[in-house]
Amino acid sequence: GRIIFIAHDGEQHAADAQPGESLMQCAVNNLVPGIFGDCGGCATCGTCHAYIDDRWRAAAGEVNEDELLILDGSEHARPNSRLTCQVTFTEELDGVIVRLPPVQR
Ligand code: FES
Q1: Does residue 105 form part of some domain?
Q2: Which CATH number covers residue 38?
Q3: How many domains does the chain have?
Q4: 47 lines ligand 1 (CB under 6 A)
Q5: What sign for the dihedral angle of Cα 21, 12, 33, 36?
Q6: What integer pLDDT is reported at residue 105 of this predicted model?
Q7: How far is the CA of 42 from the centre of ligand 1 (A)?
Q8: Is residue 15 part of a domain?
């Protein structure tokens, strides 16, 4: 599958994604700038924050409680914010557009 990451300045990075991996892992594996994943995917660092395009929000699932704790503390949080380490890639997410916030915390 494929994920399109769009940086805050508009630069696009297309990445190959495998079902079962997280969007964060895909970004890190593909050296996408702006997604760091410092905690390794534990939903504690918040450096994998991004916005899921509305067309794929339902397929990305619900924000979990660990994410909420982090996102509540981010001035850049929006209704479509996710911690990308908490979103598992599935075929339903093929082609998903993921936009990056201006900065990671
Ligand atoms: Fe740390 Fe997602 S990688 S919160």
Answers
A1: no
A2: 3.10.20.30
A3: 1
A4: yes
A5: negative
A6: 73
A7: 6
A8: yes
DSSP one-letter code for 92: G
Quote ipTM for the complex: 0.99
Ligand 1 in contact with 25 (CB < 6 A)?
no
In a domain, 77, yes or no: yes
Q: Which atom of ligand 1 lies closest to the CA of 67? A: 4
Give residue 31's pLDDT: 97
97 CB-side CA count, 13 A: 10
What predicted TM-score, i.e. pTM, was given to this entire model? 0.96
Q: What tokens does 1 get?
A: 């599958």
Average confidence (pLDDT) over 43-69 = 97
Which residues are within 8 A (CB) of 58 and not within 5 positions of it... i.e. 6 or more apart? Answer: none
Query: Is residue 48 within 6 Å of ligand 1 at its C-beta?
Result: yes
Ligand 1 atom with the smallest distance to the CA of 48 is: 2
Q: Ligand 1 test: best mutation among 44, 87, 105, most atoms within 8 Å of CB?
A: 44
Instruction: Kindly give the number of the ligand 1 atom that is closest to the alpha carbon of 49.
Output: 2
pLDDT for residue 45: 96
Q: What pLDDT digit, counting tens, does each position of 90-100 carry?
A: 999 999 999 99
